[in-house]
Design goal:
Layout: E1 12-13, H1 33-42, E2 44-54, E3 60-68, H2 74-98, E4 106-111, H3 118-121, E5 124-131, E6 142-151, E7 154-163, H4 171-186
Antiparallel strand pairs: 1-2, 2-3, 3-7, 4-5, 5-6, 6-7
Length: 187
Amino acid sequence: MLGRKDLPRGWRPVPMINNVERADPWEGVDGADALRAAREQRRLTALDDGTAWRDRDQRLLVVRCEVFADAHEDEHRAVWIADAERVLASAWRVRWTERGQSPGWIEARRRLLAEGDAPLHRRVDWYEVEDHTDPTARGDVTIYHHLTVWAGRMHVVVTVRHPLGDPPADLDHLAGVVAERAASRLG
C-alpha cells in the first residue's frame, strides 16, 4: 500500500516479528461487539498486516490493509466513530495483558487532520492513543496515532508510534501524506 518513496526521508522498512496478524483486530476487546458485528456483516476477504517502517529515532509506522466483500462502509464507519475511543483504549489494555504486562493509564481521543487536508476529512478518521504503560520502568509514555482511510470495499489503518513529546517532524503533514497516498491507491 505504501512504499519507501511515499514517506519522508529516513524511514526504512522493518519486519514485524512481534505482531500476530489477526483477521479480527478487536478479538478479545471489551466493548467491541458492535464494531465486530459491523465488520462481520461486510465479510473480510483480504488482509495485509505486516508492513512497517522505522525512522532514525526508532519511531514506528505500521500499515494494515483490509478488503471487504461489501462496499457499503457507512454503518461500519458510523459504529467506528461512535466506539473508537473506548475500543482503542480497551484494545491497548488487552494487548499489554496478552504480553504479560499490567497496562498503565491509557486514553484515546479523536484528532482532525490539519487545515488544507479538507478533501481527506471525508475519508480519514484519526485517533490518538496516549499509553502510560512502560515495560522498561523508565517512566516513558508512548503516543500512537491511529488513522483509518475509508474507500468503499477497502480501508487502510496506519499507526504511528512515538514517545510523548517527540513526534515525527510535522506529524500532521506525515499523517496527511500517508492518508493521501493510501486513499489514492484505494481509488
